[in-house]
Amino acid sequence: MFGNRDYLTNYDPKKFRQRLRVFTWCVLCAFFLLIARMWYLQIVKGDVLRQRSESNRIRIQEIKPLRGLIVDSRGDILVNNQSSFDISIIPEIAKNAADVRNRLAGLCDWGDASIFLEEAALKSPRPFVPVKVARNIGRDKLAVVESHTLNLPGVVVDIVPVREYIYGAMDAHLLGYVGEISSSELGRDASAAYRADDVVGKYGIEKYLDDVLKGKSGGEQVEVDAAGRRLNVLGRIDPVSGHTLVLNIDSDLQKVCWDAFKEQAGTVVVMEPRTGAVMAMVSRPSFDPNLFNRGISEQSWKTLTEDPLCPLQNRAISGQYPPGSTYKLFVAAAALEEGLITENTETWCNGTYPMGNRTFRCWRKRGHGTVDLHRAIVESCDVYFYHLGDMLGVDTMAEYAKTFGFGSATGVSLPGEKSGLVPTREWKLRRFGEPWQRGETTSLAIGQGFALVTPLQLLRAYCALANGGTLYKPWLVKRIETADGQTVQEFSPEVEGIVPVSRKNLDILRNALWGVVNEPHGTGGALKRKEQDVCGKTGTSQVISLPDDEEDQKGEIPYRFRDHALFVCFAPYTDPEVAVVVVVEHGGHGGSAAAPIARRVIDGYFRLAQERGVK
Fold this sequence. Notes:
The chain has about 625 residues and is an alpha+beta fold. It has 2 domains: about 60-245, Penicillin-binding protein 2a (Domain 2) (Alpha-Beta Complex), CATH 3.90.1310; about 250-285 and about 310-615, DD-peptidase/beta-lactamase superfamily (Beta-lactamase). The longest helix has about 30 residues, at about 15-45. Residues about 550-555 have low confidence and may be disordered.
């Protein structure tokens, strides 16, 4: 029988304590390592891991607002919104964003509808922020992407509203276009109201009233899976649509102007003389603003910017032209008010006006014979106004021209408006360091020389002649409404001044303008209607000085050196309700090139008025 071992008797406490100490240190080391690891994960890497964890589950998506609609005076939509689809990659979810981008690019032919980024652009410092790689894809391409989502981790599709310009090129210079905000524009935004990928107005009304049209972004808190696929919406703040702009523009009349102009370069503007409301504005050649909606291609942009006819220029407000004979009315107004002439003052015109060693010529080589003020305006006699220019002097003519709004911008709600030029003695001395010459006054009296006007300035001045002397600020926007039709702000005519011309003298000038169209030998006979209700004035402005025998050289003059043709008119004579200016660049004489266009516009206006009156 085995003997019993006495464990209690043989127990060694020293060995037990050693083992306990080792065990304790092991436990302490384990806890230390665990705590160190927890400290590292929670303190050192806490923000990164927390962001990664949350981003794997929850993503904040911005919801772009709809830009406000733009409608015409009768409520017809000029600018609408339509859906567009953009593709973005979330670098952290994609892991290898460049590889995913390449797989995406190989799915189909993307064409000009997309802009694929370089690999460097996908290395975002914020890996959970989506990086846009393709814009404005069609529904067919969207279907391809959606059918390959399992092979495209991190790829997300956003629905983005884009502008739709209903009438395309016809309204391009008036309405403008939009594009993604540039870094320079973002840097100028002191209010911090814009973000890097916002769409803003770049031209026209879209730019001038961008803060009214842009609206306010909303957002969604979306639950997604590890591949970035949308699972659930946890919260939502709806975007606020931009306000609707109701314009004074009549889209039917706008089309009349567009069709009347055909293929020439120039502009037509229609205004209501009694209020200054702009009812139509067309500039040719034009461009399709829909090209800019989601990024214009480099080739298309190059074509537009290198076109010698400058299709991006709004000639109505930024085209500056010598006014030609249309300026004679304001020279006549100054001479009448200064008491230098009466309506019966006569001058002999034999076709020439000698001055020193130079001879100024009338457009009619054989002259007009004896003419008074009325006949001088009706037949556009240059010699008569050479005399008036000599009597008035440059500074007096400038003083009266400025009261009619020349030499300063009209303030219409469009960017890029030019101010024109009203020359004076002081201006020439400051600009060229040379004194004013008498011959320059002679040229200025018939609207040549240094004088420059924009078509809108010229039309506003003639509206003042038509309405009895009130100078209105041209206005495009009738009212601003919320998306549901509530009026936010309503606009009304704004008087900028009263011209210093008596009622009697204005009547003399208006009667002469009636004669230009309706009397024998009037230069505006193309506007004569059976109602005999149109008043107007032709103008031909020189681009360069030509020899005296220019009439025999018409076919040899290069296009860019040919005269500009102008015509400005209003109707009816007794109570004017419509005024029109037409400028045809390098078109030749106002009576033959610009007046027929004005005739089509005037006829179209009264035809539309009659049709709507019947309705």
